[in-house]
## 1
Amino acid sequence: MLKYTASTLNKIQEIIKECGYILRYEKGNFKSGYCVLQDKRVIVINKYFETEARINSLIEILPTLDIRLDELSEVSRKFLEKINQQEISFEK
């Protein structure tokens, strides 16, 4: 089970950074609370979101990103596997 802590948020942010994406927290009128600019590899999250909402948004975004496992550090790879297992258990 993932905990909604600053540490979890930092680990997800590190995965996104290692994939070559820029993560920004800005105010905006996003219906989903975030915006992904694929061509520029930029992710914008509503800056007014609390930690839990930020984590949920980033977990929702992760499957849509071009993630190359060989570019991730061992720690990030293991954490990404944990996130993927979490999603599988939610679907059941």
## 2
Amino acid sequence: MLLLIRRFSVAASLLFLASSCEVETTTVTATDSTIPEPASTTFTIKKGGHTTQNPLRFVETSTIRFEATFDSTAIYSTSIPGNQADINKLYGLSDCETDHQTNSARFGWRWYEGRLEIHAYTYSNKKRSTVFITSVQPGQTNRYELVLGEKAYTFKVNDKQVTLPRFCNTAGSHYQLYPYFGGDETAPHDITIRIRELL
């Protein structure tokens, strides 16, 4: 019963985050017709918005794996130069049966000093931490993995890996965290990111 109450509370607190967006899902079938490939989804953050609007989705897992592809829309300039260093969010999970600004782990990204950077981005008992992982190229598909360990989060992008502390060690249920622009500013133009979850 307590878990249901927490889920309802979290769901209610997330409703205000939604903004206009377009989400296109494409399912590709493998050569063996009995084993479908995971769905590939294109997320669009609309100009002037922060988020893509997606259904609240709870997952029970300690690992997520996915491929992500940015295109040229990941190249942007902020209105206030100091905001260029702000880290946008790519994909991840809430944690510890709390809202995501209390405990969560996500991959972050930004266009900074002429390159597309990928960061580890966490809240651990409301303390925010970020660590640079690697840079990637627009148009390039890269593999991401997030592991919720007993005492740490492990972030992997291709062959690069970093860790950050984790506040709890429970398996529990988490809600999915989707692409988000900002920081302080909204998206200066439509930004599209393609994500394909991996088994």
## 3
Amino acid sequence: MPQASARHILVETEDQCNQLVQELSNGGDFAALASSHSKCPSGQQGGELGSFGPGQMVKEFDEAVFNGEVGAIQGPIKTQFGYHVLQVTERS
């Protein structure tokens, strides 16, 4: 079964999400931005979600993780929790 590791930043609005994507594309530090902006408890670990398999995350997030390019910044990804900036750090 495929496995992936990812990190994310969860915010309430699409505008906040777009602003973070812009900051990251300009060289911003993912972990620092996650710890200061993410409303997910994972923000305190730099947004790290650890390793997981398909179907363990909500559908929209799951699709982005298992179909997106490893290392690329993705977002905004809208889920029932808010808007996510996502980076897949590893996939096997």
